[in-house]
Design brief:
163 residues, alpha+beta, seven-stranded antiparallel β-sheet, two-stranded antiparallel sheet, 3 helices, 34% strand, globular
C-alpha cells in the first residue's frame, strides 16, 4: 500500500512540475513584428528616447489597437534601436485587466520566478527576452512590457565594460 501511495504521489508531483517552474518558449515577436525586425509601414514615429535619442518610439497608425490575448488594448508603443525592434509596451485600463493578462500569460509561459500581487516578470536569458506586467492601483491601469535584444551583449556585460 505504501508503494502505491508513493507512486501516486510521485506521479502527482511530476505532473505539476511544469506548472511550478517551467516556462514556455520566449515570445518570438511583439505584435507580429519579429525581434530585430525593421519598422513596418503600419507604424508611425512618435518620439525618440534614451541617451542621445538612440531609441525611436513608434505607434500604430490604426486608431484602435487590436486586443492582445483577448484583452482590449488602450495604447501601444514599439521601440526600435538602430532601426531594429527591441521592445514594446501595451497599456490597459481597468482593474480586471491585470488578472486576465496574468492568467493568460501563466498558461502560455508558466509561473514566473517572482510572485508579486502587482508585478510579474518572465525571463529567457538565452534570447535576452523579458516580459513583465505591472498593475498601478492609483491609476487603475496595467502595463505589459516586452524587450528582446538578440545579438547584443547582455546588459550585465555592458555595465562591466563601462567601468
Amino acid at each position: 500500500m505504501c508503494k502505491g501511495f508513493c507512486l501516486l504521489l510521485g506521479l502527482l508531483v511530476l505532473s505539476c512540475l511544469p506548472a511550478w517552474g517551467g516556462t514556455g518558449a520566449a515570445p518570438k515577436d511583439f505584435r507580429g513584428i519579429p525581434w530585430g525586425g525593421t519598422v513596418p509601414d503600419t507604424l508611425i514615429k512618435s518620439t525618440t528616447a534614451g541617451d542621445g535619442g538612440k531609441v525611436e518610439v513608434f505607434r500604430n497608425r490604426a486608431k484602435e489597437p487590436t486586443p492582445f490575448l483577448g484583452v482590449p488594448v488602450a495604447e501601444e508603443a514599439y521601440y526600435f534601436t538602430r532601426g531594429k525592434l527591441t521592445g514594446g509596451q501595451l497599456f490597459y485600463r481597468g482593474e480586471d485587466t491585470f488578472s486576465r493578462l496574468k492568467d493568460s500569460l501563466v498558461k502560455l509561459y508558466g509561473v514566473p520566478k517572482n510572485l508579486n500581487p502587482e508585478f510579474y516578470r518572465w525571463e529567457w536569458p538565452d534570447t535576452q527576452t523579458v516580459l513583465t506586467i505591472a498593475y498601478n492601483k492609483k491609476f487603475k491601469y496595467t502595463t505589459l512590457s516586452m524587450t528582446s535584444t538578440p545579438g547584443l551583449p547582455p546588459v550585465s556585460t555592458l555595465k562591466k565594460k563601462a567601468h
